[in-house]
Amino acid sequence: MIQVPSFPFSSETNAAVYSHCSFVASVLAAKLTLEEQSLCADFSEKVNLFQDELDKVSLTYGARVKKADGAVDNAWIATNHQIKANVLHYLHEIKEAAEQVNAVFSRFENPTRLSFKKKYGLLDRLITELRDLPRDVLETAGIEGWLEQLEQRVAHFREIQQRKYETQTETEKGQTSNAREALLASYNELVLQINARLVLHPTDSLIDAAQQWCGYLEEQRAILKASNTRKKKAAENAAAEKKSPASESASPEPLEDESQEIAPVLEEVDSIPQE
């Protein structure tokens, strides 16, 4: 007789919990009869409520980061256009200054299509190299103002991104913790009800749904076990790397005759092979 086992959700992220529960809900909706689906009504509602809470957090902080990143892109684009225009300037001193700036600027690829990590690493290097140029060159080339804007917008992006990570974590703990708790309680109750029906009133549709559910649980347990193994191995490797090589090296064997003179003792110590 098939029974649906419990699952250890405690170490799972909110995204993993939602993915797991939404899969189960979709299986039950596809396999069970209309009458049997009444068992899942509360669970399906809790899945939707949990998704709503996750979406609120994602939209709130994701939009702020996207807006700040867009402002950085605009500053880079404006700086690029200013340099390209002044390289063709009719006044010789502006043209010459712009060419000096462009010699630095053109060595860096367009960052607007790069990932955040690559983009902001590149912009840090670009800003540093531009700041190495004399200020009067930057001013004559007409980019001092835009360079200040770029610096300020990069700093603002980093501030928003950091705030996102810090605040989002707290928000998830607050706003979504209740929804997660309610969802998992409903999940556990659903497992009990399904298992009871499998004992008392088994049907082909119920057995088919339970088999697919159990197959999914086996896959998830294998994934969880592999993840825990990787984490354990990584922790062991990190601990091994922290060990001092000196603590593992063998100590010189004691001299058999402790009464020998100082010179022979030093000579024997010096003869110990160096690792």
Overall radius of gyration: 32 Å
| Shape label | elongated
Quick check: average pLDDT? 84
Query: Sheet bearing the most strands, described?
Result: none
* Range of strand content: under 5%
The unreliable regions are 246-275
The gist of it:
This protein has 275 residues and is mainly alpha-helical. 76% of the residues lie in helices and 0% in strands.
Overview of the molecule:
The protein has a domain at 53-205. The chain contains nine helices and no strands. It has helices at 14-31, 41-86, 92-105, 116-131, 135-140, 144-200, 204-242, 245-248, 262-270. The longest helix has 57 residues, at 144-200. The two termini are 64 Å apart. The relative contact order is 0.13.
Defining traits:
single chain, about 280 residues, mainly alpha, elongated, disordered C terminus
Layout of helices and strands, plus pairs?
Blueprint: H1 14-31, H2 41-86, H3 92-105, H4 116-131, H5 135-140, H6 144-200, H7 204-242, H8 245-248, H9 262-270
